[in-house]
Amino acid sequence: MSILTKVFVLVALLAAIPAWAETPPSVWSVHDVGTEAWGNESTSPEPEPMVGRPSDEELIQLLRRPVLETLAGVEYVRLDDQNFKREVLENDTHVMVLFYSDDPATPGKNNSRGMAALAFALKRIYPQYKLGVYQASATDSLPSEELRRLAALYQIQMVPSLEFYRYFSYEHVVDKLNFGLDNGIIWNQDLLYQVDRYSRVLMPRQLDNVWE
Questions:
Q1: Does the CA dihedral 188-67-106-156 come out positive or negative?
Q2: How crowded is residue 6: how many other Cβ atoms within 10 Å of its Cβ?
Q3: pTM over 0.85
Q4: Which CATH class is domain 56-207?
Q5: 99, 144, 181, 196: which has the fewest C-beta neighbours closer than 10 Å?
């Protein structure tokens, strides 16, 4: 076969390659909430801003504010061992419960204050949800024996902890969901991330589904 013939054959083979082979594959991404793939990243819808969400600046300021001073801006119920069942497990709405330990006289940040800022933001976004607050200790630390007692009573892992209880209207029962946050919050970006994350996880239409 001559060189000229080989060139013609090569040109013919290249021309036979389908056009789709030259097109790069789409970039797929998964939205933070749920498992739905939204399609190409360039056309993925931006999450809508949450009505009632405090500004980033306001949230960051709350990281240094005592827990009850932060929560004074929203409606909440003080919880203890005597009223927990009535206020949380026998109510007729979804409930968020903050377990915390905080000495208001101590300046600066601590993990409970960050969790209180998260609870404050979520209550502002979803005022129809009930917020309960359980003070585990009036100091910045919690004795290990008290943590074990609370863990046995309320199925929590740590203090601070923000737990979520869903009310099933058709069965008139309340169950504790398994996506509570129990590692505390102390950094600015962590707080802002958790506010945006939980504000979408807790959308009412999602809590109407079964979470496992």
A1: negative
A2: 10
A3: no
A4: alpha beta
A5: 144
d(CA 127, CA 207): 15
pLDDT in tens, 93-138: 899 999 999 999 999 999 999 999 999 999 999 999 999 999 999 9
Query: What does the alpha-carbon distance between residue 179 and residue 163 come to, in Å, rounded to a whole number?
Result: 8
- Cis (ω within 30 of 0) for the bond into 160? yes
Strand order in the sheet with 77-79: 77-79, 130-137, 95-101, 161-168, 173-176
Residue 115 has which token pair?
Answer: 């969790």
User: Which pLDDT band, with edges at 50, 70 and 90, does 43 fall under?
Assistant: very low
The residue ranges of every structural domain in the chain are 3-43, 56-207
- CB 173, CB 147: distance < 8 Å: no
What secondary structure letter does DSSP report for 41? G
